[in-house]
Amino acid sequence: MPYGDAMSTRARSEERRAEIVRAALEVIAERGYRGASMAAVAERVGLTQQGLLHYFPTKDALLVAVLKERDQWDAVPGGRWRLDLLGSLVEYNAMRPGIVQTFSALLGESVTEGHPTREFFTERYVGVRASMAEMLRAQYGDRLPSGLTPERAAPLMVAVMDGLQYQWLLDPESVDMPGAFRDFVALLGEDDSR
């Protein structure tokens, strides 16, 4: 196969994989992971179930691809978070309820023994807490105005973000997710470096 044809085939394959991941995200958002079937995803993208297995050999492989894709959407250049960027992420999430719903549903299901996303989320939260601690240290130094260390405050930051998402999904008219997050940041105290 000529080089150009191989590149074209690879590009089409990557486009098809991306289409499948988007469809899987929609199906999971609608039905939850346990209720989502490979057949439903295949149907949504116009493939047979066998055709889908060519791209993703198992449901677990597809699920991990969905989660990795979602994390790429939220990635920050250089991987360095700042409080203002976190606020922007919360505002962005308020504009994409389907993505937030899928993430929240999978997170909730991941706490059950043997769930295929348990390891993914466990490892993800180790990294997220470390990133939050690094961000808080860059913003406040070794102690926040409250006296907490960045490492002690990081899990609280993550809990607020995820908890707000659940509350907002359940009652979006009553929960101003971006506003509540700004209120939480205000509770952290003033940045002494300004």
Describe this entry's structure for a reader.
With 194 residues, this protein is mainly alpha-helical. It contains 9 helices and no strands. It has helices at 3-35, 38-44, 49-55, 59-73, 83-93, 97-110, 118-140, 150-170, 177-188. The longest helix is centred in the first third of the chain and has 33 residues, at 3-35. The N and C termini lie far apart (60 Å).
Topology (SSEs and partners):
Elements: H1 3-35, H2 38-44, H3 49-55, H4 59-73, H5 83-93, H6 97-110, H7 118-140, H8 150-170, H9 177-188
What is the structure about, briefly put?
By secondary structure, the protein is an all-alpha fold. The chain has nine helices and no strands.
Number of helices: 9
DSSP strand content = under 5%
What's the quaternary structure here? single chain
Per DSSP E runs of 2 or more residues, the count of β-strands stands at 0
Largest sheet: none
Overall pLDDT, averaged?
86
The SS-based structural class is mainly alpha
Percent of residues in helices: over 70%
In sequence order, what are the helices and strands, one letter per element? Answer: HHHHHHHHH
- Using only C-alpha atoms, the radius of gyration works out to 20 Å
Give the CA-CA distance, first to last residue: 60 Å
Low-confidence runs of at least 5 consecutive residues: none
